[in-house]
Amino acid sequence: MSRMKFQISNLNLYYGPNQALKDVSIDLPESSVTAFIGPSGCGKSTFLRCLNRMNDFIPRCRVEGQVLLDGTDIYAPGTDVISLRRRVGMVFQKPNPFPTSIFDNVAYGPRLHGVTDRGTLEGIVRQSLEGAALWDEVRDKLNTPALSLSGGQQQRLCIARAIAVQPEVLLMDEPTSALDPMSTARIEELVRELKTKYTVIIVTHNMQQAARISDLTAFFLLGEMVEVGPTQEIFTSPSDRRTEDYITGRFG
Questions:
Q1: Residue range 214-225: mean pLDDT, rounded
Q2: Residue 220 belongs to what H/E stretch?
């Protein structure tokens, strides 16, 4: 059985007086892909952002409960949030490369953490681009603007940028929603490869995508986690009627 990377217990999140997450408890295994599914506004992206404290940037946001990463509560007083976000990287819904060169995009994180040697940086950039299945396409144009890449390439560049600081976990918030089918297929293939080195947690509206790439699936509805289990079980024999209705299209 896989070791648990995250153990979340009784998590509640509030935006001011409004409760957005209600008593969520889930264990997330390492070296696996976990998918969060559910309708828009159900809380899955909000929950994802709890795992690297991105919600800290939102005014009047309050989190209650426990989020353990390798047994340590990431919401404990004195937590080094910068270190946390290095361990738990994130890829967003829309590709967001910096308006700099391809090389500088990938080298940004390592430089931020004190790597200055050019040879070391070149090695990290190559390794990260290879890890994101992009090296062969950009190896001869590392000094060209990142924004000149296609949408799918930009998203793989953002994945390379995320893994350049050697995180342990990759959070992905609908990483293919803005991409064409071919680029989506490339990212899905990449996700399957990434789980050999990282714990991957992905939010997706695309149930077929969740079925194709994830080991574990959690269904969210109205801020609650209705059900979680092995992906094949969730999609073939869900235990909750609401999950079944959502998967079969009868929802709502």
A1: 97
A2: strand 216-221
